[in-house]
Write a structure and sequence with these properties.
It is a single chain. By secondary structure, the protein is an alpha+beta fold. It has a domain of about 100 residues: minor pseudopilin epsh fold (3-Layer(bab) Sandwich). It contains one helix and ten strands. Strands 1, 2, 3, 4, 6 and 7 form a six-stranded antiparallel sheet that branches. Strand 8 and strand 9 form a beta hairpin. The chain is elongated.
C-alpha cells in the first residue's frame, strides 16, 4: 500500500502546495519517518575481501607488465640520447660521443674540448647519463676501447653506424640500429622482442 503526502491549505494562507505523489517510507512504531538505509558492516567487509582477492590475483601479471615496460622505456631513452647527441654536435659544431659501458650497464655523453682531442662530460639531461636497472643488460656491435663502446656524432650530422641490443627478463630483447652514417638510430622491428 502506498502512502502519499497530503497538503492542506487554508483559505487566505497563500499556501498552494499540492500533493507530490511520492510514496513515504513506512513509519516506525512512533509514527516517525525512517531514514534511508545504508550499507551494513557485513556488506562492506565482503566488498573489501573481493577487492583484496582481485588485487592479489592481478599483482603478478602487473609486475611482469612493469618489467616489460622497463625494457621498452630504456630503448626509448637510448634513442632520445642518440638524437640529443646528434643535435648537439650539429648545433655546437663539435664532436660528441655517446659512451656505452656494458660492464657498468650505463651510457653517458661527452664532447670534444676546444683542442678537439680530449673529451669532457657534456651538459647532461636525464637520457644522456643513464644507468640501466639491474634486470637489464646492454651490448654493442662497435669495438671496445678502454672497456667502453663509443658512438661518435660529427658536426656535419654523421654518426657511427652500430647495433645495440638491450636485454631484459624472460629473454626479452630490443635491437636498436643505425645502418648508415647519415641515418638515425631506431628500434629494429622483430629484434627479439
Amino acid at each position: 500500500m502506498r502512502r502519499y503526502e497530503r497538503t492542506s491549505s487554508s483559505p487566505g494562507s497563500g499556501d498552494r502546495r499540492v500533493a507530490q505523489g511520492r510514496p513515504l517510507k513506512s513509519p516506525d512504531r512512533r509514527g516517525a519517518r525512517l531514514p534511508d538505509r545504508g550499507f551494513t558492516l557485513v556488506e562492506l567487509v565482503l566488498v573489501l575481501v573481493i577487492v583484496i582477492v582481485t588485487v592479489s590475483i592481478a599483482s603478478p601479471s602487473l609486475s611482469s607488465f612493469v618489467r616489460g615496460r622497463d625494457l621498452s622505456n630504456t630503448a626509448g631513452r637510448f634513442i632520445a640520447a642518440t638524437r640529443f647527441a646528434r643535435a648537439e654536435a650539429i648545433s655546437q659544431a663539435a664532436v660528441y660521443r655517446l659512451n656505452i659501458s656494458t660492464f657498468e650497464k650505463r651510457w653517458w655523453l661527452t664532447r670534444a674540448d676546444e683542442s678537439g682531442v680530449n673529451f669532457i662530460p657534456a651538459e647532461a639531461c636525464d637520457d644522456v647519463d643513464y644507468v640501466l636497472s639491474s634486470q637489464l643488460g646492454i651490448s654493442c656491435s662497435l669495438p671496445v676501447t678502454d672497456d667502453v663502446h663509443v658512438i661518435e656524432f660529427q658536426p656535419g650530422g654523421e654518426v657511427d653506424p652500430a647495433t645495440i641490443t638491450l636485454t631484459g627478463p624472460n629473454n626479452g630483447a630490443i635491437r636498436i640500429a643505425c645502418d648508415s652514417r647519415f641515418d638515425l638510430y631506431r628500434i629494429v622491428p622483430g629484434g627479439g622482442r
